[in-house]
Specification:
This protein is mostly helical and about 600 residues long. The protein has a single domain, classed as MFS general substrate transporter like domains (Growth Hormone, Chain: A). The protein is about 60% helix and about 5% strand. The chain is built from 24 helices and eight strands. The strands form three sheets. The protein has a four-stranded mixed sheet with strand order 2-3-1-8. A two-stranded parallel sheet has the order 4-7. α4 packs antiparallel against α10, α10 packs antiparallel against α22 and α11 runs antiparallel to α19. The protein is globular and about 80 Å long. The N terminus and C terminus are likely disordered. It is a multi-pass membrane protein. This is MFS peptide transporter Ptr2. Keywords: Membrane, Transmembrane, Transmembrane helix, Transport.
Length: about 600
């Protein structure tokens, strides 16, 4: 994927370059803007005029970042391939005429359990983040929770074989397995996203020159954006496991699909372990999360965001309080609080997003499948992401940058909310078409639809559902990818996993709201539920932009706080040395 982005090639900076040559002196009569842009040597920070006028570009990912991406690909292959079968596994009875059932708890029971699983998977990242940031570090925490994940998968495979189902082990095994798997995936999710961005070590903008002679600015913020675009692309390549598992479920049994997921996750764990020497690994920072909450408490009781700063205390009280942080850390903490305020709007988005693996699957089963399993349609979500990410990254975003049109994270998040509302509105229209078609109209699956010993859907082609998945996929590129990026760039270096877990926690709140909506997941009320979610997502997107679009103008200033940390590389909040693997960032492969 890296070579797909190589639009320009940056020359190696020359440390001994002297800016005051005879040629430079001859150009002193040129326009001030031209002089300002040509005065700074390659590899150095641009001045204000250069930062404003020169084109900003991103660098390619280091090899260690690709290894982390492969691990995430395998984990997401497992997660989506497994959970994509849950709706049918829980919904349909074992003696279903199509031979595809297991637990037989019905539509509402299936939606309730799958929604709880989603909720659980996004609560547990908090535990993984605390363990990583305070005790083990990101890498060791991921290894630990990978072992937990494997135990849960083993239980799921063993209790889903036909003999176990016939002896009543299915429901108990399913509940235990989703609890353990949710713990495993939560511990991984809060750490793998910041771990991949940790592999990129540049913190400050730098000037460079392409082989075509163009002066450009290497922008770390754009590189982080690219990292998460590629990271999200790998997630969705992994989620294409749903191309295989529905057919395995139908033709062999649920256990075969779960076994495939177990094998794939084991492969990802091996990449994680054997690639250890290649990773940039940052050690834990001790009681950093506890210290952060202490600082927050000082802010609250003093009603002042600067109150925890040692300098503020020395000025206000006349003496310097003994605290384990400095002024810079409080500035970073304030920036993290801004990110958390942004995240507070995400739950409604996750309610919409969660429909594609639950109620959308049931909706597909209410239509004529023409040989297509109802849970196969989910693949149009990752396929749309895989198609649109390269288009945006190689064409749309570079074009916007060339035209000097900013497309900052807040704008992207707002647009994601609006596009998600289009997905819900389209789903409501499809549901209306189903209810308008025979033979069962607003009661899909009635006796009139049973022939040849099988239950068939109403006379609406299953492919009509495709645009809803495409809308969801495009909305993810804007809202979900930007959320990952925002969580990383706005978190203090010693709290990357914890802030990431706060972002993931919004998904749990979304799942809780979806759980509350479960009683409305029946025919024909579900059409109005889709309509309500469409209106809610659109309104939240507009209101969100109105309240937070001013943060776009502060983006560079907030990101510059991390650049200050690079002045003393290798030391964290408490003066602990970070012992990072030596992995310099090359400017030879920067791309536009």
């Amino acid at each position: 994927m890296a070579t797909a982005h190589n639009e320009v090639d940056i020359t190696e900076p020359t440390p001994d370059h002297a800016p005051f040559t005879d040629l430079a002196q001859e150009k002193e009569v040129a326009a001030p803007c031209e002089k300002a842009i040509s005065a700074t040597p390659d590899g150095e920070e641009p001045n204000a005029e250069e930062a404003r006028t020169l084109r900003h570009v991103a660098e390619n990912l280091p090899m260690s970042a690709w290894l982390v991406a492969v691990v995430e690909l395998c984990e997401r292959f497992t997660y989506y391939g497994m959970s994509g079968m849950f709706q049918n596994y829980v919904n349909l009875p074992l003696d279903n005429s199509q031979g595809r059932g297991a637990l037989g708890l019905g539509h509402q029971g299936a939606t309730g359990l799958t929604t709880f699983f989603q909720f659980w998977c996004y609560v547990t990242p908090i535990l993984g983040a605390i363990i990583a940031d305070q005790y083990l570090g990101k890498y060791k925490t991921i290894v630990l929770f990978s072992m937990v994940y494997i135990v849960g998968l083993l239980i799921l495979v063993c209790t889903s074989i036909p003999t176990a189902l016939e002896h009543g082990a299915g429901l108990g095994g399913f509940v235990v397995s989703i609890l353990i798997i949710g713990l495993g995936t939560g511990g991984i999710k809060s750490n793998v996203a910041p771990l991949i961005a940790d592999q990129y070590k540049r913190k400050k903008m730098a000037l460079s020159t392409t082989k075509k002679g163009e002066r450009v600015i290497i922008d770390p913020a754009l590189t982080i954006q690219r990292i998460y675009m590629i990271f999200y692309g790998c997630i969705n390549v992994g989620s294409l496991s749903l191309l295989a598992t529905p057919y395995m479920e139908r033709d062999i049994g649920f256990w075969s699909g779960y076994l495939l997921c177990l094998c794939m996750f084991t492969c990802g764990s091996m990449v994680l372990v054997f690639g250890r020497k290649h990773y940039v690994v940052r050690p834990p920072q001790g009681s950093v999360i506890t210290d952060a909450f202490k600082a927050l408490w000082i802010m609250v009781i003093n009603r002042n965001m600067d109150a925890p700063k040692p300098s503020w205390q020395a000025t206000t009280t006349g003496k310097r309080r003994n605290v384990p942080w400095d002024d810079h850390f409080i500035d970073e903490l304030k920036r993290a609080l801004i990110a958390c305020k942004v995240f507070a709007w995400y739950p409604i988005y996750w309610v919409v997003y969660g429909q594609f693996s639950g109620n959308f699957v049931t909706q597909a089963g209410q239509m004529e499948g023409h040989g297509i399993p109802n849970d196969l349609m989910q693949n149009f979500d990752p396929i749309s992401i895989i198609v649109f990410i390269p288009i945006l990254e190689t064409t749309v975003y570079p074009l916007l940058r060339r035209l000097r049109i900013p497309f900052r994270p807040i704008t992207r998040i707002s647009l994601g909310f609006v596009v998600a509302s289009l997905a819900m509105m389209y789903a409501a229209i499809v549901q209306h078409l189903i209810y308008s078609a025979g033979p069962c109209y607003d009661k899909p699956g009635c006796d009139a639809s049973v022939y040849d010993g099988q239950t068939h859907g109403n006379r609406v082609h299953i492919a009509i559902q495709t645009p809803a998945y495409v809308f969801i996929g495009v909305s993810e590129i804007f809202a979900s990818v930007s959320g990952l990026e925002y969580a990383y760039t706005k978190a203090p270096p010693s709290m990357k996993s914890f802030v990431q877990s706060m972002y993931l926690l919004t998904n749990a709140f979304g799942a809780a709201i979806a759980e509350a909506l479960t009683p409305a997941a029946y025919d024909p009320a579900i059409m109005w539920m889709f309509t309500g979610l469409a209106c809610a997502s659109f309104c939240v997107g507009v209101i969100f932009w109105f309240f937070y679009h001013h943060l776009n103008a502060q983006e560079d200033e907030m990101n510059a706080l991390d650049a200050d940390d690079s002045e003393t590389p290798g030391y964290g909040l408490h003066g602990q040395q970070s012992h990072e693997d030596s992995q310099p960032t090359s400017t030879e492969k920067s791309t536009s």
